[in-house]
Design brief:
Helix content is about 25%, strand content about 30%. It has nine helices and 22 strands. This is ABC transporter ATP-binding protein.
Length: about 350
């Protein structure tokens, strides 16, 4: 296992060209489960390939603990890798597929059998160990691929590149849960690439959100949800994403289309100092209905969707569209929905970055 340090790391595929990865400085702790999350083309696979050694960065260093691995080939980095499509030997048995990385490193057969059975038990492959891999379902083949990445005890890290893409949706949650169980039991450093926020938030201890080659925020799922460091993080995380309103700051209030909304005084002061384009952000589920005697904002309702446990209201506050998550018992008045933006949940952004 290893602590992974990305030291002033950046990458250009062509000298003098655009950065595929913007300069970054990050430390991922030993034994952590990390997800690289972002849309297609944001740089997450490039970053994973640099960590694995498939790509050598044009700038900076990659450290595994105290060891500089920047120029080392993948086989010299002592890592396990699991790719989007299963990498297995169809003509071999499941047992021999799992054993291959261990036998390749000259481990004794007693150790190989013990280790293979241990990993097979974790992944639910015990019943098919003697079967040839080519006769198995796609999800079973991906389990074998996962097992090949996990079977070695001495790996510095295990890297996953969208490993559940080819799996049927109803089976994905089972494999995500299995990966969490494996991580808790083995305490390996895991790095998981995905464009799916559900996969990232349910798998990882910390999520690395990327856009256009830049790491926008590294945080726990709770941190990303409660205090997005960038408007893209707020928009990308959550369903629906965060509401954003162009605003100005007047005293301790954000002014949205003439409406004065109380915000944290320190945040208001920081926003004034920051300048630039100002926006107010708040999660749909953190907007609450106003009490009868409470000063409120009025949302003009356009649509109400019944989503089972709650209702999603889509409406307008002034010229801005707004989403509000309501309990089914809440009533909408004839003139619209009266709501309050709690001060502790109303965040200010200057040029897309959280202030304060």
């Amino acid at each position: 296992m290893a602590r992974i340090e990305l030291n002033n790391l950046a990458h250009q595929y062509a000298p003098g060209g655009d950065y595929a990865l913007q300069p970054m400085q990050h430390v991922w702790e030993d034994g952590g489960a990390y997800a690289l999350l972002g849309p297609s083309g944001c740089g997450k696979t490039t970053l994973l390939n640099i960590i694995s050694g498939l790509v050598q960065p044009s700038e900076g260093r990659v450290m595994f603990g105290d060891r500089d691995v920047t120029t080392l080939a993948p086989e010299q980095r002592n890592i396990g890798q699991v790719f989007q499509f299963p990498v297995i030997y169809d003509t071999m048995s499941v047992f021999d597929n799992l054993a291959f990385p261990l036998r390749n490193r000259k481990h004794g057969e007693d150790y190989v059998e013990r280790r293979v059975k241990h990993i097979a038990g974790m992944l639910g492959l015990e019943e098919v160990l003697k079967r040839r891999a080519n006769n198995l379902t796609a999800d079973a083949k991906q389990k074998i691929s996962l097992g090949r990445g996990l079977v070695r005890e001495d790996v510095a890290a295990v890297l996953f590149d969208e490993p559940l893409t080819v799996i049927d949706p109803h089976l994905k949650w089972q494999l995500r849960r299995k990966l969490r169980e494996v991580h808790e039991q083995l305490n390996l450093t895991l790095v998981y690439v995905t464009h799916d926020q559900t996969e990232a938030l349910t798998f990882a201890d910390k999520v690395v959100v990327m856009l256009a080659g830049q790491v926008l925020q590294v945080g726990t799922p709770q941190e990303l949800f409660e205090r997005p460091a960038h408007t893209f993080v707020g928009y990308f995380i959550g369903s629906p994403g965060m509401n954003f309103f162009d605003c100005q700051v007047d005293g301790h209030h954000a002014v949205v289309d003439g409406e004065h909304i109380p915000v944290d005084p320190a945040m208001a002061e920081a926003a004034r100092s920051a300048g630039g384009k100002l926006q107010l952000g708040i999660r749909p589920g953190l907007i609450r209905p106003a009490a009868a005697d409470e000063t409120a904002l009025t949302v003009k309702v356009d649509k109400v969707e019944d989503l089972g446990d709650y209702e999603l209201v889509t409406g307008h506050l002034g010229q801005h569209q707004v989403h509000v998550r309501l309990e089914e018992s809440e009533k909408i008045g004839s003139e619209g929905l009266r709501v309050v933006f709690p001060t502790e949940n109303a965040l200010l952004y200057a040029d897309d970055k959280l202030v304060g």
